[in-house]
Structure formats: C-alpha cells, structure tokens
Amino acid sequence: MTQLAERLAGKFIVIDGPDGAGKTTQVDMLAGFLAGGGVDLCRVRDPGGTAIGDKIREILLDPSHDQMSVECELMLYMASRAQLARQVIRPTLSALRCVLSDRYISATIAYQGAGGADTVAVATAARIAVGDTMPDLTVILDIEAETGLARVAGARSTDRIESKDVEYHRKVRQMFLAQASTAPKRFAVISTDASVEDVQKCLRNTIETWDWTQG
Asked: How many domains would you assign to the chain?
C-alpha cells in the first residue's frame, strides 16, 4: 500500500462548489489519480448514489418542477443523503476505504440557504439524515457566478437549479465561501480561474498535503 493510500484509508472527501466550476471534470481526474496511487476508492454523487437517491435526484433537477418550495428541496436532498450515508458511505468507511463524493451537505447549506432556508435548520436536518457521517475534507472549487453560469450555458442545457438568476448564484457562492472560512480544518478553497490541468494540480496537492489528523 502506498503512503497516500494509507493516509486516505477510511477518509471521506467531498468536492463541492458553485455551478460551472468544473466540479465533475475535476472529480473524474482526481478519482483516476487516487486509484492510480493505490487508493481503495468508492466514488459517489449527491443527490443520488443509490437506486432510491437517483429517483429523488430526477425529481430535484427536473426543470418542470419550478414551483418546488425550498422546504421541499431541503427534505428531498436530505432523504437522498440519508439513504446514501446508510447504504454506501458508512459501510465503505468502516471497511477502511476512501469515499470521494461529488457534493454533500455543504451544497444544501449553500443552495437552499441562498434560497432562504435557515442554515441552522439545514444543519439540524443534516444531523437527523446522516448523524456523524461527515467529510474529513470538503474542497470548494470556487468561481464567480457570472463566469460559472456562462460556462454551463455554453456546455449543455441547464437543470432547474442552474436556471435560477445570477443573484441567487452569487449568494450560493458566498455561502460556500462562508462555510470554508468558519471551518478551515475541514474545508479548502481552490480557485478555478485557471486551466483544468492547473486546477487539478492544486486539488491533488491539497489532498496529498492535507493534515488528515485534524478536523
């Protein structure tokens, strides 16, 4: 087992951030790097990651559900997450494997918080949904709202969340950054105002140099 594999055994890593930051691309590249380094990796996405969660994801992202309330959003995200934590994340961590997740609770605090949800209530709902199944490290891939939305619009059709106005997405970004500033032992922020390759280098360096004993 490599040194990196030893350090990441039983660790839970989340990659999160505003829309358009290139999160999925970076998770793809990071997963390949970690697996190539001998890390026993389980990759998941949130919402989704289970048969039940994937059905909830379809409901959440369907553009036709534009009347969905922020309270309904919150409960659906937490329901998907509760299933993912119980069915996949906890058993994987208990087996001393590394979990790499595309989004987690940080996203709900940012997105539903930007929509008007009480972040204290979000945190309470999260504790009910996942208990102490929390990330050892959450990396926020940061991008300005205008730039991120332009990237999304130029790449594909937008989902229900991505279709919201720029002011909403500015709030989302600020709520991601606020989480990172209040918990520096559990969060890292990487600017995506660089090439895909340079962002990946920063991401890999963060993983390799992170103090996994803190948090």
From this structure: 1
